[in-house]
Amino acid sequence: MRPPISLEKEFLKKWVMGLQKWSSTSKEMSFLERKKAIKLSADVAMASARNGSTLWSRALIAGASKDPDTNAIVKHVVTGSTAFASLPPPIRLGRRRVCSNKALRKARINHFRRPSRKSAASSIVKRLVKKRTQVIKGLVPGGERIDDESCLIKETLDYVISLRAQVHVMQQIANAAELLNTNNN
Amino acid sequence: MDPIGGNEVRSMNGAKDVEFGVEAYQFGEELHSLMSGPPVTGNSFTALLDLPANQAMELLHSQAVDDSPSELRLKGHCVSHQSPYNHTLNWAPAFPSNTALIERSSKYSIFAAADATVDRVGGGGGGQGSPDSSSMPSNSRANVMKVKSEPADSGSNPNSLPHASGPTINEKQMNRKESGKKGKGSSKRGKTTANDNSEEVEKLPYVHVRARRGQATDSHSLAERARREKINVRLKLLQELVPGCNKISGMALVLDEIINHVQFLQRQVEFLSMRLAAVNSPMEFNVDSLFSAGNGSVTDSIFPSVMPLTWPEVQMNSDRQQWQFDYDKSANSALFHSSQRKMEL
Question: How many domains does chain A have?
Answer without folding.
Answer: 1
